[in-house]
Design goal:
binds nickel (II) ion; alpha+beta; single chain
């Protein structure tokens, strides 16, 4: 990044809080504080985009469910066809004889994506579901 795009800022922060933060980012593998701060800021902006509802976002929906429940697989596949415009890709893993894990990559307006995630996760028989909120990366440096 050209240096004329960089702003240097001074932040007053409690010494003990900063010490804890430094220990934390060290454990997370950051080699410098600036990159950790940038990641925190980007994450805050991504979460704000999700809260706005209208912004274009990307995420993943993870579903864990038993293979043997009558019509469950068919129901989930049916729903994925209904939302095909928002579901970019699906990964299906047969975990063992009984259990399946699906990861769906979803894209669209935040409110729509959240609605799709809620609809899938709340299907009877799904043992665990989670929406992971991420970004298209557009507008984030
Ligand atoms: Ni399976």
């Amino acid at each position: 990044m050209p240096s004329d795009h960089l702003s240097r800022i001074g932040v007053a922060i409690d010494r003990e809080l900063l010490r804890k933060f430094d220990r934390h980012i060290d454990r997370r593998g950051y080699t410098n504080r600036s990159e950790a701060f940038r990641d925190l800021i980007r994450d805050e902006l991504v979460q704000a985009a999700w809260e706005s509802g209208r912004r274009e976002v990307v995420g993943t929906i993870t579903l864990a469910y038993p293979h043997h429940v009558h019509l469950l697989n068919e129901k989930l596949t049916d729903m994925q066809h209904r939302y095909h415009k928002n579901i970019l890709s699906t990964l299906h893993v047969h975990l063992d004889q009984e259990h399946c894990l699906e990861v769906l990559v979803v894209r669209g307006k935040a409110a729509d994506v959240r609605k799709i995630a809620d609809a899938l996760i709340s299907v009877k028989g799904v043992k665990h579901g989670r929406l992971t909120t991420s970004t298209t990366g557009a507008g984030l440096t």
